[in-house]
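Throughout our pipeline, every protein is held as a single compact record rather than as scattered files. Nothing more is needed to write down the fold, since each code stands for a local backbone conformation. The record that follows is passed on verbatim for readers who wish to inspect the format.
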Amino acid sequence: MSIGKQLRDELLQHAESLKTPPEIESRVYLSYQDYMKQKKGRFLMKKRLLSGIVAVAILIPTAALATPYLADQIFGSSKTIIERGGTQEDYQEIEKLFQEAKSKLTEEEYAEFSAVMKQLMDLKIKITDQNGVMHEDQLTAEERKQFEEVLPQKAAPFFEKVRGDK
């Protein structure tokens, strides 16, 4: 037998005969309990942090998609445009115009712009058939005057500000 193995066996026999005092056992036990509590606390904190990150990752895009279209204030939905021969791209273009107007006009100007655009679009919807063809003969004399003269004149200054045609 090698000297290392003999020494090891002797030390193991001596260690088995030793008795640990109860106070050391209790200190080791308490220390182990504290360690496990801290480890569990770190795990819960990591779990909470991870769940918070997942919640934010889900809520932010959802909130962005849930914001209403400004064009919906006029048309109700994109279906109105599509039913009158328009496309989803036409609706997106109108929405883009309204977003641009909202960012460039004051609140009062935007409110007036929206009102004028609503009147104009209501008349356009009234005279447009399912194929997208406008039939201006369906308008009364007063509506025709509004459609051809009054509303475009009211809308022109807003378009100049929004589009930068100054």
Helices lie at 3-17, 22-66, 72-75, 78-83, 88-104, 107-127, 141-163. The chain has seven helices and no strands. The radius of gyration is 38 Å.
